[in-house]
Amino acid sequence: MSKRNYEWSLDVLYKGYDDPNFAEDSAKLDEALARTNRFAEEIPSMPPREALLAYIQQGEEDQHLIMRLYSYASLRMSANTRDTESASVTGRLMGKLGSTAKARTKIEKYIASLENLDELIESEPILKEYEYMLRNLRDAQKHTLNDECEEIAALYDISGGSAWGDLQSYLTSSVTAAYRGETLNLSSVRNLAYSPDASVRKDAYQAELACYEKIKDPVAFSINSIKLQVINGARLRGFASPLEQVLFRSHMTRETLDALLDAMKEHMDLFRRYLRIKAKALGHPNGLPWYDLFAPMGSSDRTFTVEQAKEYLLHIFRGFDEDLANMVARAFDEAWIDFYPREGKVGGAFCAGLDGLKQSRILTNFDGTLSDVVTLAHELGHAFHNLNLESHRPLNNDYSMPVAETASTFNENVVMNAAIDSAASDEEKLFLIESQLQDVTQIMCDIYSRYLFETAVFASRESDFLPADKLCELMLDAQREAYGDGLDPNALHPFMWVCKSHYYSSGNSFYNFPYAFGGLFARGLYAKYVEQGQAFVPVYRKLLYTTPIATVEDAARVAGIDLTGKDFWTNSLLSYKKNVDEFERLVSALAGARK
């Protein structure tokens, strides 16, 4: 691959804001939005069949147009947050799209009101392809306010829940911590939790807790305001609770969630055992203190160039699915990936699908570690999920939150297990197994504590304002229940509610259990692959294809999985027992070798 491919290319969308195609598409978008507003006025007088077909045709055309314009501006801004032109374009696009909210509500209400909708769906092949979307649209109208109220709710959220979320983001990004005579931002001091130096980890933890004291009260107002807005909004829309609303939007039943949580609770001690083993190895007799949760164990000096990462992933994925390997090669060779960190580029990693183009764009901050290669595999899993949806019609590409991490986490399992099997030494094997157990313990214990905390906040907030100290108390209660004796009860993290942005969305509550769902669902699918070999690959791909056009439960049934019972979840959880056993053996063996 050429060095020019170390940064992604967006030329498949536009070559710049001065590209004539960008100006042409911008003008087309204005026309499309005006057409949507006209359509909302005309649709009640149209014959139902004609109205439905027009709705689908316009939606498909607009989908591609919006994707190209918005993806180009938002991807440019991710690569360079100082790109003010892209920020302006993104803002204008959001404003334009928001101007049709009332019209879209009218259109969807009309479609949902059609008494013969089922008959119409069966009568037209294109409508049959959109059967799941149209039936969901009808079901969603039971929870939709009238046109004016929807518009008012959207407008008030800008200065309400959304603004409170922005406040939390601003405060946590601007607060500073006093660490060993230095002034560090919150991200920097939190990253010291991964230091190999025990004293650094402990001092950073104490500095982090101290810095939250400066912002805890305004952030408490943020979470209280957002949660009360969500409670009231759910009630107005006819939901019994915010959780019921989330499950409805996730296309997932409460029965599945209960089966998942029950299995997690029954087998939580497996992961607490891992924490106790780690605590003992690090010299902590009363459980692991929070500041050593991410203490590195073992070591790996393996590093990768971008070219070596490509060959490593291709070698592994060719043994799984040639189409996945070919897509990975394209991603590296055709500049789908923006690899290296640089000033102005956002942190972390993500994958954005370019619907209809059979491509995705991936942002990482690659520095050559094996962990970075696993991150690449994770994001390429999202791209593979996107690729398996390309044969759908344009409006059938939106899968729900719980299944969003299926392909990405499956890829992680493939790569991590291959890496463990080929570890060059016991030190490297310990490093890899501990990394894997650290991740799954996060989705088990930490995610469960977040679910418990958010449940408690919603239960209390309807009648009471929760001051910062009460929120800290609820967080500690949740951590004690989730982590049990795996953690030192005198060294927990009472301020985890301050720094986690997931709590501060007025439109996306309970952004916690989907992580546990995704991790264990992918692990269970990987176990089926290990058992069935290549015969499982087409089943897996069909499952990915099904995710936008079926409930979570029906998508799983493609692979013969019943998510509403505990057996599948239990088997996924128990598959980690051998990892914990091997972790304990390696810790003991390496400790003995050092004596």
What does this structure look like?
The structure is a single chain. This protein is mainly alpha-helical and about 600 residues long. About 65% of the residues lie in helices and about 5% in strands. The strands form two sheets. The chain has a three-stranded mixed beta sheet with strand order 3-5-4, sandwiched between helices. Helix 1 (about 20-40) crosses helix 4 and helix 14 runs parallel beside helix 26. The longest helix has about 35 residues, at about 425-460.
Give unreliable regions as ranges. Answer: none
Globular, elongated, flat, extended or rod-shaped: what is the shape? globular
Let me know the largest β-sheet. 3 strands, mixed
What helical percentage do the residues reach?
55-70%
Number of helices in the DSSP assignment: 27
Q: Strand order, biggest sheet?
A: 3-5-4
Radius of gyration: 25 Å
Question: How many distinct beta strands?
Answer: 5
Mean pLDDT: 93
Distance linking N and C termini: 47 Å
Q: Helices and strands: which structural class? A: mainly alpha
The percent range for strand residues is: under 5%
The quaternary state of the protein chains shown equals: single chain
What's this entry about, in short?
The protein has 595 residues and is mainly alpha-helical.
Describe the secondary structure blueprint for this structure.
Layout: H1 20-42, H2 48-79, H3 84-98, H4 101-113, H5 117-123, H6 125-129, H7 131-140, H8 147-159, H9 161-174, E1 176-179, E2 182-185, H10 186-191, H11 198-212, H12 216-236, H13 242-249, H14 254-266, H15 268-281, H16 306-318, H17 322-333, E3 337-338, E4 350-354, E5 359-363, H18 370-387, H19 406-421, H20 426-461, H21 468-483, H22 496-499, H23 513-532, H24 537-546, H25 552-557, H26 566-574, H27 577-594
